């Protein structure tokens, strides 16, 4: 209860600060640069979640620990959710900046491919009825799927020309003023805290569902 309240207050402060404390960046139409405080953390959480899913899958395959599979499944689901949110906020930015929600920019294309890859992960879990085989297949697929994440997120957008801004709002660049940097880092921490809370909640739900299934077969 306390954690949820703190997260709610923290997120509220970040939202207010994003619009009232930090100034809009130069070189962007209107207030569009403020989407940085939401889009980038969402993309960061998606990448982090897929990484955790992969690590948990390795642990499951090594030790056959059901809790590791719960972590892998929960992290993959949340990663997919935040990936969708990053796609939506990116599309809003694209509409305001380039005149269209979708431009088939390398970053937009790569995130669609990423969504398709992890969409197949959930399809695989739904298609296999046997629990043990489902967990094994999903674990192997999660490891293979994550191999594409660094390539799609970090490599593809940088080896081809892109409309996506790189340096203007980069924290390592002088272009990000102190106020913007504070809100940006605060948003990263807020989204990370939100993700951890959601992940623990999702794992708890899966654990309860698992106990109910075991009780049915007793």
Question: Layout of SSEs?
Answer:
Blueprint: H1 2-20, H2 36-63, H3 66-98, H4 106-127, H5 131-159, H6 178-216
Helix pairs in contact: 1-6, 2-3, 2-5, 2-6, 3-4, 3-5, 3-6, 4-5
| Poorly predicted tracts of residues | none
Based on CA atoms alone, the radius of gyration comes out at 19 Å
The largest sheet is: none
Find the count of extended strands (DSSP E, 2+ residues): 0
Write up this protein.
This protein is an all-alpha fold. It has a domain at 39-161. The protein has 6 helices and no strands. It has helices at residues 2-20, 36-63, 66-98, 106-127, 131-159, 178-216. The longest helix is centred in the C-terminal third of the chain and has 39 residues, at 178-216.
In short:
With 218 residues, the chain is an all-alpha fold. The protein has helices spanning 2-20, 36-63, 66-98, 106-127, 131-159, 178-216.
Which key terms come to mind for this protein?
mainly alpha, globular
């Amino acid at each position: 209860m306390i954690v949820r309240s703190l997260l709610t207050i923290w997120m509220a402060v970040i939202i207010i600060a994003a619009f009232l404390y930090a100034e809009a960046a130069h070189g962007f139409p209107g207030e569009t640069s403020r989407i940085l405080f939401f889009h980038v953390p969402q993309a960061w959480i998606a990448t982090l979640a897929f990484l955790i899913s992969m690590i948990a899958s390795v642990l499951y395959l090594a030790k056959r620990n059901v809790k590791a599979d719960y972590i892998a499944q929960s992290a993959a689901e949340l990663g997919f959710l935040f990936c969708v949110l990053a796609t939506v906020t990116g599309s809003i930015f694209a509409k305001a900046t380039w005149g269209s929600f979708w431009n088939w920019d390398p970053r937009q294309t790569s995130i669609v491919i990423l969504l398709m890859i992890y969409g197949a992960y959930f399809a695989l879990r739904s298609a296999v009825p046997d629990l043990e085989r489902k967990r094994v297949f999903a674990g192997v697929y999660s490891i293979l799927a994550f191999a594409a994440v660094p390539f799609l997120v970090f490599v593809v957008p940088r080896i081809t020309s892109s409309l996506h801004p790189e340096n203007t709002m980069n924290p390592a660049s002088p272009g990000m003023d102190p106020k913007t940097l504070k809100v940006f880092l605060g948003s990263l921490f807020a989204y990370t805290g939100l993700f951890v809370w959601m992940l623990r909640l999702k794992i708890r739900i899966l654990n309860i569902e698992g106990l109910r299934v075991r009780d049915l077969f007793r």
